[in-house]
């Protein structure tokens, strides 16, 4: 019987599918060395974002046929190294779209109404209504950077909230943007005009530090930024500096250049202007069942000798 290693927590639905055709071992929190030491015994590896599948892991995985990422981003897998060895890498491109979009919308509304700090204040025994006067999103302009699956759903819901929509995406037609109620514009205009900026694009060499001291300086002092896409698209030191100097009004972040976020990150000392969540975009019961099922089915098929849809 083939063997599958599951090295990050995944939903039981995925384990049940894999168990139909393989021996499934769940071992989470392995160090890179521990993973490299045991991976040689396995035909398949199933991960979320926690496991880093490096060249060393791939070299040690002499029996590996497939790596399954229960989620969208395969940036924690050395895909070129896997491809050179003929190991297929698969993911779940759509399983957590709604979860991530809803998290971005929740962040936007929480930031506007100071919900996390107001909650802490009431629980601390206070009753301070004046301190938490927020702002409405109705009739405000939302700039969506990256109008793919998640960005499109965010745009659709934001439109229903009465927001005006700008979008920047170099790979999307003006026609597609218009169907979603968005005006497709250049990035500098979106940065200048948006009251809220929400990021839904991949991190690539071109998008690294897209939001930096220079671009932050072009935004309005009332602008609020939401990043539920990937860490590293925002220069975190520049963002912390801009927030502390009132260059912009707020930021809600789910993803960070280094995860877990370091204890000394300047983001941790920001006040009510920042909301930080620990990469929870895909953390809904529904999304975790979707991604575990999608990826487990692909691993099962490859172990049965059927063709794979690679990431
Ligand atoms: P997608 O591929 O459907 O959409 C990404 C869009 O970004 C595409 O339309 C693409 O044309 C656009 N794009 C590419 N380069 C760009 C650039 N330089 N400027 C502007 N747009 C650009 O992907 P998706 O499923 O919508 O995911 C979006 C992001 O969210 C990804 O980075 C993904 O890894 C991340 N994500 C995070 C979580 C989370 O837990 N926080 C969950 C799911 C996805
Ligand atoms: C993804 O790429 O799917 C998300 O970042 C969520 C996750 O890592 O589980």
UniProtKB/TrEMBL annotation:
Pathway: Amino-acid biosynthesis; L-serine biosynthesis; L-serine from 3-phospho-D-glycerate: step 1/3. Keywords: Amino-acid biosynthesis, NAD, Oxidoreductase, Serine biosynthesis. It catalyses: (R)-2-hydroxyglutarate + NAD(+) = 2-oxoglutarate + NADH + H(+); (2R)-3-phosphoglycerate + NAD(+) = 3-phosphooxypyruvate + NADH + H(+). It is an enzyme of class 1 (oxidoreductase). Transmembrane segments: none annotated. One of its GO terms (biological process) is L-serine biosynthetic process. Its EC number is 1.1.1.95. One of its GO terms (molecular function) is NAD binding. The keyword Amino-acid biosynthesis applies. The keyword Ribonucleoprotein does not apply. Belongs to the D-isomer specific 2-hydroxyacid dehydrogenase family. Catalyzes the reversible oxidation of 3-phospho-D-glycerate to 3-phosphonooxypyruvate, the first step of the phosphorylated L-serine biosynthesis pathway. Also catalyzes the reversible oxidation of 2-hydroxyglutarate to 2-oxoglutarate. This is D-3-phosphoglycerate dehydrogenase. It comes from Leptolyngbya iicbica LK.
């Amino acid at each position: 019987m083939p063997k599958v290693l599951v090295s990050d927590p995944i939903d039981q639905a995925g384990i049940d599918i894999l168990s139909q055709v393989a021996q499934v071992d769940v071992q989470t929190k392995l160090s890179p060395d521990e993973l490299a030491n045991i991976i040689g015994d396995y035909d398949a590896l199933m991960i979320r974002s926690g496991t880093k599948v490096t060249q060393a892991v791939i070299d040690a995985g002499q029996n590996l046929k497939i790596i399954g990422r229960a989620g969208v981003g395969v940036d924690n897998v050395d895909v070129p190294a896997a491809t050179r060895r003929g190991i297929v890498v698969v993911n779940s491109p759509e399983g957590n779209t709604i979860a991530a979009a809803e998290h971005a919308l929740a962040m936007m509304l929480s930031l506007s109404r100071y919900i996390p700090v107001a909650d802490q204040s009431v629980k601390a025994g206070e009753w301070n209504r004046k301190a938490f006067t927020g702002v409405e999103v109705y009739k405000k302009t939302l700039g969506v950077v990256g109008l793919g699956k998640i960005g499109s759903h965010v745009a659709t819901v934001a439109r229903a909230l009465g927001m005006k929509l700008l979008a920047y995406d170099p790979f999307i037609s003006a026609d597609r943007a218009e169907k979603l109620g968005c005006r497709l514009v250049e990035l500098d205009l979106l940065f200048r005009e948006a009251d809220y900026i929400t990021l839904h694009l991949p991190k690539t060499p071109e998008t690294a530090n897209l939001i930096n001291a220079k671009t932050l300086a072009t935004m309005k002092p009332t602008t609020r930024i939401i990043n539920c896409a990937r860490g590293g698209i925002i220069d975190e030191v520049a963002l912390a500096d801009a927030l502390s100097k009132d260059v912009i009004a707020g930021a809600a972040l789910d993803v960070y250049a280094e995860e877990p976020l370091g204890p000394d990150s300047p983001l941790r000392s920001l006040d009510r202007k920042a909301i930080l969540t620990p990469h929870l975009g895909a953390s809904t019961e529904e999304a975790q069942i979707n991604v575990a099922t999608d990826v487990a089915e692909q691993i099962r098929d490859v172990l049965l000798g059927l063709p794979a849809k690679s990431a």
